[in-house]
Amino acid sequence: MTVEHWINLSCHPSTRAETVRAIQVRVRRSSSAELRMTFRLDGDIPQIRIPSPGVTRLGTELWRHTCFEAFIALEGQPSYHEFNFAPSGEWCVYALSSYRNGSPVADEAMRPHIAMHSTDSRLELDAIVRLDSLSAIHPRAVLRIGLSAVIEASDGTLSYWALLHPADKPDFHNADGFALILEPAAE
Predict the structure, then answer these.
(1) Better pLDDT: 3 or 99
(2) Topology of domain 3-182, per CATH?
(3) Which of 27, 32, 35, 121 is deepest in the core (most CB within 10 A)?
(4) Where do the structural domains in the chain lie, given as residue ranges?
């Protein structure tokens, strides 16, 4: 299944987002085992700390600053992968066997393709993940997807955006937030 329309992310009620008007995501799953995501942030871009674009490379603790995230789980399984995509081109992948139980994976085969475009009022980040780099099962399985973003304002405050916020505190790892169900793409 491909989501051809824009999906709205919402800001967690415990955080404020004065510099962001909206964050939307479009997800496309192809029969060639690619998961394509376009994150679109509308707001006062000069008032948001955005790392400068650079070489695509493995990063650490990207969620401490402006970044976009995707959580990918097989339907019915507690294990999942967390992808972090920074506007700088840095990325990180975590393999988790259950809720927050896992570690980073430093495997270049899992490196997503990241491209970023920005104006004073909009930032778009495109990320492509190869599902076959996660496992042989992922390309043909039903997936549960969590979509989120951490946005750092110029004053250092963070706002937390997600498809769904199932808890009182921001927690992108809560499986109840993996609310987008994607069927395998048609051959």
Answers:
(1) 99
(2) Immunoglobulin-like (2.60.40)
(3) 35
(4) 3-182
Render the chain in DSSP notation, one character per residue. --EEEEEEEEE-TTS--TTEEEEEEEEEE-TTSEEEEEEEEEE-GGGB--PPP---EE-S-GGGSSEEEEEEEETT-S-EEEEEE-TTSEEEEEEEEETTEEEE---GGGPPEEEEEE-SSEEEEEEEEEGGGT-SSGGGS-EEEEEEEEEEBTTS-EEEEES---SSS--TT-GGG--EEEPPPP-
Looking at the predicted structure, is the pLDDT value of residue 72 above 80?
yes
Strand duo 3-11 + 158-162: pairing: antiparallel
CA distance 106 to 63: 17
DSSP states of 37-55: EEEEEEE-GGGB--PPP--
- Summarize pLDDT for 120-138 with one digit per residue, the tens: 999 999 999 999 999 999 9
N-term to C-term CA, the chain: 11
Cβ-contact 134, 110 below 8 angstroms: yes
